Amino acid sequence: MHKHKSNTTLDSKLNAVSIALKQSIKNLDSYTHVRGESLYVDDVNIRQGTFHGVVFDSPKAHGKIKHIDYSKAEALEGVERIFTYKDVPGENQIGGIIPDEPLFAEDDVHFWGMPIALIVAESEFIARKARGLIEIEIEDLPVITTSKEAKAKGSFINAPRSFSLGDAEKGFNDCEYIFEGETFSNGQEHLYIEAQGAYAEPLENGNIKITSSTQGPTAVQKTVAQVLGVAMHKIEVDVTRLGGGFGGKEDQATPWAVMAALAAYHLNQSVKLILNRHDDLRMTGKRHPYESTYKIGLSKDLKILAYQAEFLQNSGAAADLSPAIAERTLFHATNSYFVPNVETTVISCKTHLPPNTAFRGFGGPQGMFVIESAIAKAANEIGVSPRQIQEANLLDENNSFSYGQIAKKVEAKNTWNSAKSIFNSEDLEKEIEDFNATNSNFKKGLAFMPITFGISFTNTPMNHARALVHIYLDGSVGISTAAVEMGQGVNTKMMQIAAQVFSIPIEKTKIETTNTTRVANTSPSAASSTADLNGKATLKACNALLGRLKTVASEDLNTSEDNIELKDEFVYVNNKKSELSWTELISKTMLKRVALTENAHYATPEIHFDKTKEKGHPFAYHVYGTAIITTTVDCTRGTYEFDSVKIVHDYGKSMSEGIDLGQVEGALIQGIGWMTMEEIAYNEDGRLLSNALSTYKVPDIFSVPKNVEVIPVETEGNDMAILKSKAVGEPPLMYGIGAYFALQNAIKAFNPNYDLKFHAPMTPEKVLMSLYSK
Amino acid sequence: MITFILNNKTIKTPEHSGMTLLDFVRYEQRLTGTKIGCREGDCGACTALVGTLKNNTIQYQSITSCISPLGNAHGKHIVTVEGTNLKNKLTAAQEAMKANYATQCGFCTPGFVVALTGFALSNSENNYNNALDAISGNICRCTGYKSIEKAAYQVVEKLEGQEKNSLKWLIENGFIPEYFESIPQRLKAIEVKDLNQPKGKYVSGGTDLYVQQADHLADNSVHLIAEKDYLKGISIVNNVCTIGTNSTVSDLWNHSEINNHFLNLKKHLKLVSSEQIRNMASFGGNLANASPIGDMTIFFLALNSTITISNENEKERILPLKDFYQGYKTYDLNDGELLKTISFKLPTKQSFFNFEKVCKRTHLDIASVNSAIHLFVENNVISEAHVSIGGVAAIPKYLHDTSSFLKGKTLTTETILEANEVLQNEISPISDVRGTSDYKRLLGRQLFFAHFIELFPKQFTLNDFVQHA
């Protein structure tokens, strides 16, 4: 292996990162995590007599139900009851954006794995056994599995959406080079290690409490109420934590919670429904596969003057979140580049796959893959490095995005140039060239991947949150928000905010479960915005309490409020420590009958978007970054390793360096998995072939890049981010796209005849076939 | 009654021995730290440790409890994450995970903690690569593993200066709680009678059967054979190695003499599932599963192995492994018969053995194609050759024609290229989720070439075999 030349800038920066990591706050949930004491839905105590549910689902992707015989299943000892659409007292409807998705199939089935009935029995084992006894007859109808086919047959979810800037047709007239092409990016299974699940308990007066592994407690509450035909206040949803979500539990945690609640409603007994892995893989949607076409035009000096793209989104059998995901594809279609003339269209195609759904990046990665493919193709044809085209087109301050937002505090060039200089990219490229010139069994490839990702729900009305903060008599603090902890460390961040405002040890704060009776009408934990929205609300609540405490302290100490500060559990007057401690101050406040509870509401300012014009200012801010990925391909076997990923990332002013680095690394590897290894396969009948962990492979510890270096870009941060600490959940996933192009460059070094293909993931099979294609 | 020690508690249970250890631990004992991720040994969230008493010392191995029959716990010490917890502080493995931000959603975390604790308790040499092997069966979807690598590194550092196999040292240094010291005595004291075994499906490690038919096994009687002594052990007599079919892949991995004969044994076996599975999976199970892609079957075919089969009356018959397979998942085994041993000539100084495997993910994955070769070469002439290949036919395939073609030929590029032509005529891959038939055909060729590039690096490079501009 080539040894890196000593690079003092890099070393000092890596040192700074490692010091920050040592000092940074640890995830406060980790104590119970490592001891196996954290509680997930399948771990909460269940009531005596609890029943267990198993879902009976369609064994065909499209057809008419002719006949179902439940009699043998019902007769099995231990089976309590089987529920179908006929048992729904309210609406048999769970569609969030568009009401096009029944909870249980009625006369037709629209995807393989579509729920038809819920079997409730004394144990999951019995329910599963009963499932095998159900007989069903379905008359086959034609099955559509690809978006192209759906488009040809006119099968759509909704009307297409288009964004435009300038005049693309005119733009092409001025171009020296014009290229067209097709791309495909496959779906991706979320593979949260904790499968979907819920536990429903009937309470008095027909009220039901549901513990759900959901990113969207309000969606669960609203949908249960709708299906049961009861008011929302009858339904309480509680979330302890999630064993991973990644978007897969934003909308698709709902049906299981609804089914458990429906059974609890009828039986007046607790019902637990946890999907086993095979059921989860078969019945739930994934990241959307996209089939896209593009046309890109460049000037002689490699400026992209015009870009057109049509994105065919494979939405699956119902809308789910597809329209919103499609929209974000358009928002990110030009990634980190300024293109003056843009015309992009996305079409949500209705097929007979399980409804595809949110997945980290939410349509953004699919859009970015297309423009990166267009750039790679253009570079190959022109005979330059893709890096040259990327570099020539990076966003600048005050550039306009195609949706009308003016780019501010842009870090695209800053991260790009920093990455080049800190990591000595020219040396790196030279090393690879030398390696390839002297090695025949192995070839190396490198790719740059810049990212720009907008932060906010693109549906503006969703950008709000509330926090309920109690200070208890003894000075300890309880915080409730709408944030759902699923590994992203949001619990820790919320507690950090309270501890910082009150200047008390973080151990004196506690984050409560996410519960719809404490914080109502919430947006899901999604769009990377959870810490921003809920953090700002928490900050607001804590500041309001702080104000009241200061008033009490100033009266007690006979001074003006302006002189008061809370520091290290004491009241300071004019920077001098007083005798008044935090706990005494709280007692005094209580005695004065001043409220020690605050409920605050935060709504992101400034943002707006007009869907009739497709213009506006939808994002609070953008997150930027640049990655350099290198790979080594084994040209005998077609296997590969990633040698390094070097990233300059825009954290803003990170409030938790360790947690944020974990988000970058985790997202990166998930992105690489999507681009290289994770291959969803359906057969033409619409049956999922990659239906187990033995056939659907996600990265393991040996398949991650050997060396991952992440350096924060020097920046002021952004006031729209919580404590200037920018959202970090989704953006780094898109660094993984670089993996595809690094591999392709290595293949080209071995096989000059290789005709570039843009068909992700780049599996070992595709690598080997490409190495030896003629 | 199944009798064992679960963490610090002695268990006597009348439960059905075919139920999974996972279900027993989680739902009968309410130890919810052991998580359910996949129920097929592919994620490691349910990792537990099994302590076995041998000659007064206890040896711990990690397993995936989701595909382990409860009956196999009989007479053992089973450790879940709760059993590693100290009262008011974290263990060394737990602290390493916490300090390095190696836990996010936390759902896979107990599995990692238990596997790393298992590493500390194990006999394997204390180094970073072995620590990574210990967690090779654990999938994390959140962290991207870089932080977990750091945690593993910290565990290795903490273990430096450890007294070998000293429970006392591990207790003093905060790796395990104190009660571990009493376990060997307590295990000895437990009166362990042989389980009353009903007639039923023979189950050894269970690593394949529980993936395919867990519900059936939990509901019907099983006949556990993992502890049968007459199926155990590895012996070497006159350069012939005989392996009892109950031996696990780890038994082979740990066998020092075998390692002397197969210089790349660990490298090859590392491609076979994960450490947790290698600790359970028996060779007999791998052969009887008859998967066209069974790694160890391909391995033993190239060694031209013979197998011994015994029936209920302990009558034995011997046949070459290459004659055992008849068609897809069918083989020459009658009701009541058991595979007893596998025998083969060990590689010598004049012979060359290699194993190759390619899959989507290099580790803990099922091969698209795997292949093994055993060549005897004298003065650059091949005196004997055995080549096997998996994933390209209905059975794990011994390449009769290719092997006999090679015999007597001079070891040259031309010979190998011609042998590949023979090989291509012997295989008939089909397209499935592991690859298209074209891919498998190409991969078959490449792995065949790879054998020679690996075994004779001074003689052959890739360029000798493939034409490219």
Automatic annotation (TrEMBL), chain A:
Alphabetized Gene3D superfamilies for the sequence: Aldehyde oxidase/xanthine dehydrogenase, a/b hammerhead, Aldehyde oxidase/xanthine dehydrogenase, molybdopterin binding domain
Ranges for domain Aldehyde oxidase/xanthine dehydrogenase a/b hammerhead: 35-142
Keyword rRNA processing part of the UniProt annotation: no
Domain of life: Bacteria
Keywords: Molybdenum, Oxidoreductase
Name under which the protein is recorded: Molybdopterin-dependent oxidoreductase
SMART domains: Ald_Xan_dh_C (SM01008)
Record carries keyword Glycoprotein: no
InterPro entries: Ald_Oxase/Xan_DH_a/b, Ald_Oxase/Xan_DH_a/b_sf, Ald_Oxase/xanthine_DH-like, AldOxase/xan_DH_MoCoBD1, AldOxase/xan_DH_MoCoBD2, AldOxase/xan_DH_Mopterin-bd_sf
UniProtKB/TrEMBL annotation, chain B:
Keywords from the UniProt entry: FAD, Flavoprotein, Iron, Metal-binding, Oxidoreductase
Signal peptide as annotated in the record: none
Highest rank taxon of the organism: Bacteria
PROSITE patterns: 2FE2S_FER_1 (PS00197), 2FE2S_FER_2 (PS51085), FAD_PCMH (PS51387)
Protein name per Swiss-Prot or TrEMBL: FAD binding domain-containing protein
Stretches assigned to the FAD-binding PCMH-type domain: 162-349
InterPro entries from the UniProt entry: 2Fe-2S-bd, 2Fe-2S-bd_dom_sf, 2Fe-2S_ferredoxin-like_sf, 2Fe-2S_ferredoxin-type, 2Fe2S_fd_BS, Ald_Oxase/xanthine_DH-like, Beta-grasp_dom_sf, CO_DH_flav_C
Domain called 2Fe-2S ferredoxin-type: residue spans: 1-84
